[in-house]
Amino acid sequence: MASKAPNGHSKQKSFAAYPQQIQSHATTFTRYRRNVWNWRVDGTIVTMLTLLCAFTRLYQIGKRAVVTWDESHFGKFGAYYVNRTFYHDVHPPLAKMLIGLSEFLSGHNGTFGFKGSYPSYVNYKFMRQFTAMFGIGLAPLAYLTCHQLNMQRQACVLAALFVILDNCLCVMSRFVLLDEPLLFFTAASLCSVAGLQNSWNRAFSQVWWRWLLLTGVSLGLVASCKWVGFLTIALVGIYTMGELFTMYTCRFDIGSAARHFVARVVCLIAVPLVIYAACFKIHFMVLNRSGPGDSRMSPAFQASLKGSPLGSQPFTVAYSSQITLRSMHTGSGLLHSHAHRFPEGSRQQQITCYGHSDSNNDWIITRPRGEGYNRTDDPPSFVRHGDIVNLMHRKTKSMLHAHRKFPAPVTARDFEVTAYGQLGWKDKNNDWRIEVVSERSIATNNELHAITTQFNLRHVATNCLLSAAAVKLPSWGFGQTEVSCSRHNAPGSAASLWVVEKHVNSQLPKNNLRAMIKRSFVRDFVELNLAMARSNNALIPDRDKYNHLESDAWTWPFLIYPMRMLGSWKEGDIKYYEVGNPILWWSSTFCCALLPVQLLLYLARKQHKRPAKWAPGEALHYWNGAKLLWGGWLLHYLPFFLFSRVLYIHHYLPALYFALLLLAFEIDYFCQRILSGRMQNAVTTAWALTALAVFCWFAPLTFGYSGPIEQLKHRQWLPSWNLYTDRFAT
Which backbone phi and psi does 573 adopt, to 5 degrees? Predict the structure, then answer.
């Protein structure tokens, strides 16, 4: 029978997370021992904190019956789930599906476009309350996280109060936005990994497996809300690598190390990946009707949606058909021409790719020199693999043309592609060979099919491939995509693959293409994620134009540029200001800057053989909390300096959550080292009352203020704030 450890748990040497000598050091804790959950005390505290948080998040939540801030986007996205119409956005679908669920539960029929005032048939209060529940959940998670980090009970309460009494966290939870689900699952991930760390000497026990699995589930959920959730995954990944490295350095036996490694691969990699993919699977299952996001996806995906015009058209392409050709390279678009010429090179008519529907995208496919054009064959003559064809631009009657003489205008190693000549001309530079590369339908022949056949157009005279690699032309090309003839692209490269998106031929019957397309979830999943990445990269700020909403990452910890959450700032308008609790923001920023200084001083003292006097286990306790909280703040903040996309102050909120808990952690640490028990309570109370006073000072702008803003001008603590005056506005 296993012997009992001093902490009351069975000692299982073969399944312990670390060697016995490390365990024995940990079990000699005096002041820094593990917290024990007391349902009567801790349960009561958590209930009271949750009720207080609920009051701050729900009080007058329906005061402004007008679509506010990004409710215009995310409320509309939620309505698409009610209507089951496909849309496109830069974020993964989970948080938006939750918004859609709130709209469904509220009885919304999906007809409101989320512009202007809410109509009577939209229960916007319920939708906001539903989202606010995630904000309310931050308070108990903050308490439980600090409890798992073995902080004193009053410090756990203080951390939860910091989260409750931050005005920015509060105001962002009062609207239909994605930020609160993201923050909730970020907090859940931190709480789970803290619980896992606190169970390190009970490896493979029931409680250890529970925390490990909860960590994986939380990571999958946070990544499925926004891609910044992958920063939380990075935090847990670095923590896990540190654990495994510790096992390696302590000469862990191979069998136990392998079990630890496999357990983490399954729970921290496979589980989050399955959850992330499952959210997209549900997304595709629900949104099965054609909608505003169709054009971001491949023609095959579009045609598979109910109501898509691409789903009903002739299947097999015949000569004399009118077609549109889409490049399979992400972001390129449809083969296009217009009555404008290249300013250099051949100075012939431009060929480009264009991303939107336009009559200049229409082409007629014929035999070389137009043989048989407009002739009615019975049966029709279909285009096949290996056929040599000409493509005539329907609007200008010019032919798709390439030549060796001139390089492409941007990609100089490729040949220029133009529109030149007329139908019937004997010009070998107008000849292109159809080369079928893949087929995504039930058809097994070598014919060219609309939507499902991916093929190359090989220029017969030069042996190059018609290509579009999403390279943008200068202003003379209207910023459209360059089309060139490449000798370097492989036949299967996306830039050289084309598909017939629209096929018109009055001599052919229309077919139901939805029944013929072979869909693949993996292919759709990858395609949508690539489209999201492309849209995200396109969100580039205009540095030459002032925008009172945007701010740079370096300004966030210092609260330099809070944000007005609505455009109108007149008397009578209910105004919300996204400003944090300045005392909490500035103090937490100071702590984030202080911690590395503390560590450097500790290392310096150790180097000079004057180490700090730690109580038994105190150093381990401090490091276990600091590495998660400070590391989480760092990983959720520094990457924004690398992002080129548009940034807003609420992007700092996940990092702020870590910073607020770190502030409570540092207060707890210094109180225990310096002060007596009574003074510790006094300091904790003073911090709580200060946070409450500042929260109440800015509360009118958190709960909605309709009076003249001049009455609140004294709340503009920094000259850079645009609360009362906006010195940057023109």
Answer: -75, 140
Q: Which two tokens stand for residue 1?
A: 């029978």
Confidence grade of residue 612 (pLDDT, cut at 50, 70, 90):
low
Let me know: does 516 contact 368? Beta carbons within 8 Å: no
Token pair, residue 551, equals: 């701010």
Q: What are phi and psi of 661, to 5 degrees?
A: -70, -35
Task: Tell me the two tokens of residue 519.
Answer: 């869909």
d(CA 629, CA 488): 50
Distance of CA 638 to the CA centre of its chain: 17
573: its two tokens: 């308008």
Q: How far apart are CA 198 and CA 43, in angstroms?
A: 19
> How many angstroms separate the CA atoms of 577 and 583, rounded?
17
Q: Which residues of 241-257 are buried (b: 16+ CB within 10 A; e: fewer)?
A: eebeeebeeeebeeebe
DSSP string, 142-163: HHHHHHHTT--HHHHHHHHHHH
CA dist 415 → 406, 459, 478 (Å):
6, 10, 20
pLDDT at residue 618 above 80? no
Dist. CA 442–CA 500, nearest whole Å: 17
Q: Give backbone dihedrals phi and psi of 341, rounded to 5 degrees, phi first.
A: -110, 160
pLDDT tens digits along 545-598: 556 678 899 999 999 999 998 877 888 889 999 999 999 999 999 999 999 998
Residue in the structure block whose two tokens are 């991916």: 454
Retrieve residue 605's tokens: 């003292």
User: Are the C-beta atoms of residues 222 and 192 closer than 8 Å to each other?
Assistant: no
206 burial via Cβ count (<10 Å: 0-12, 13-18, 19+): exposed
Report long-range pairs for 525-529 (Cβ below 8 Å, ≥24 apart).
525/277, 525/280, 525/281, 527/297, 527/298, 527/301, 528/280, 528/297
User: Which residues share a beta bridge with 313?
Assistant: 511
- Pairing relation of β-strands 349-354 and 334-341? antiparallel
End-to-end CA distance of the chain: 79
DSSP per residue over 563-622, as a string? EESSS--STTS-B-EE---HHHHHHHHHHHHHHHHHHHHHHHHHHTT----PPTTHHHHH
pLDDT digits (tens, 9 = 90+) for 267-324: 999 999 999 999 999 999 999 999 998 888 889 999 999 999 999 999 999 999 999 9
